[in-house]
Specification:
This protein has helices at 23-28, 63-72, 129-135, 154-173, 198-212; strands at 33-35, 38-43, 50-52, 55-57, 75-77, 82-94, 97-108, 111-125, 141-147, 181-186, 191-195, 215-226, 229-240, 247-251, 255-261, 266-270, 275-279, 284-290, 295-303, 306-310, 317-321, 333-339, 342-345. With 347 residues, it is of the alpha+beta class.
Length: 347
């Protein structure tokens, strides 16, 4: 039996748990989920980057992975909807258009709700800011890698190229899309690296000189003006040291391996004394090679202060001084460089 305190829905006359509309009438009057009928996704055909508003973002996702998330973003829920869920089915209509069928469920005012909607996905192609600059031959600087008084070595050439690529990858992963390397050209003089921003240019020269030694200078050139601001292109000139790391040189007394070229001295590892020390450039008589290209040779015997080493080319035995710091043992291999008929044992 209904008492005067019972509450009724003023719209349908049914029982209500509030002083207003019942749950069913409130749901009927509430647009609890609204779908956009059309969504446009702009991507770059060159690199696959996606444009969101006016910002380009790199992504590794394919269209099949992007479509469901894009369709879900087309759904706008009423804030009172709980336990939201969206099931998506994608069907490609053409290369530039797909259609998504969405089954949307949730709870509203304690009742389960469900609806279905269709969303057209338009795949729009547009060249991104980075690809546009690269294809338009835009650049803000050139890094020139050279060596002081000598030809740059193949090792240094490859090392500099790897450093440039690693620097670019690091900046790209950090979101600096316009910090790119657009070209690397090898020449008889060295390596030229064309860069898309002055920031990446500076980082590349700092990383190369940190790894390979040397110094660099910057040479800006005014190329125009934009929005009242002067625009410059910068040439970064790297001069690698006269002697690269691990070069083995002949001194007035013995041999040494170059560790680092400093402002007034060259830090070397003395292969006779077994320790690092500084020498002057004029103390160096000649360069005999680089430790990276040393040969492997077998120690045939140890006798007193001498060791016999088998020549890997001729098979003949050559005697060298057996220095305490080397720790050589008969039957083991050592690394050697040749200075004419003399073997120089590496550390």
């Amino acid at each position: 039996m209904t008492s005067i305190q019972d509450r009724f829905c003023p719209k349908c006359g049914g029982p209500s748990d509030t002083d207003g509309l019942c749950a069913n009438c409130r749901i009927k009057d509430t647009p609890w989920a609204v779908c956009d009928t059309r969504v446009i996704s702009t991507h770059c055909p060159g690199c696959g980057a996606i444009k969101q508003v006016n910002t380009w973002t790199d992504t590794d996702l394919e269209k099949a992975d992007l479509a469901p998330e894009l369709a879900r973003k087309a759904v706008h829920f009423h804030p009172d909807v709980k336990k939201r869920a969206i099931q998506v089915e994608i069907r490609d209509i053409s290369p530039n258009r797909s259609r998504a069928r969405l089954v949307i469920t949730g709870t509203l005012y304690g009742e389960d709700v469900e609806k279905t909607c269709m969303v057209d996905l338009v795949w729009h192609k547009e060249q991104c800011d980075r690809c546009n600059r690269i294809t338009g031959s835009y650049y803000e600087g050139i890094v020139q890698v050279r060596a002081e008084g000598r030809t740059i070595s193949p090792f240094e050439m490859q090392a500099a190229a790897n450093i440039a690529e690693q620097t670019e990858n690091s900046l790209q992963e950090g979101g600096e899309r316009l910090s790119f390397v657009s070209d690397m050209t090898e020449s008889r003089d060295g390596l030229d690296i064309t860069v898309g921003s002055q920031h990446i240019g500076l980082l590349i020269v700092q990383n190369i000189t940190s790894a390979l030694g040397g110094r660099y200078t910057t040479h800006p050139k005014l190329v125009g003006e934009k929005n009242g601001r002067q625009l410059f292109r910068i040439t970064y000139l790297i001069r690698l040291p006269k002697y690269q790391r691990h070069d083995v040189v002949k001194l007035s007394r013995g041999y040494a391996e170059v560790e680092q070229e400093e402002s007034h001295n060259i830090k070397v590892f003395d292969l006779d004394q077994g320790r690092s020390r500084a020498v002057k450039d004029e103390e160096i008589q000649k360069k005999i090679g680089n430790a990276r290209s040393a040969e492997t040779a077998l120690v045939a015997y140890i006798s007193g202060g001498m060791m016999g080493i088998l020549d890997p080319l001729s098979g003949a035995t050559k005697e060298c001084r057996n220095l305490p710091w080397q720790g050589a043992k008969a039957g083991e291999n050592v690394r050697v460089l040749r200075d004419g008929d003399t073997f120089v044992v590496m550390r």
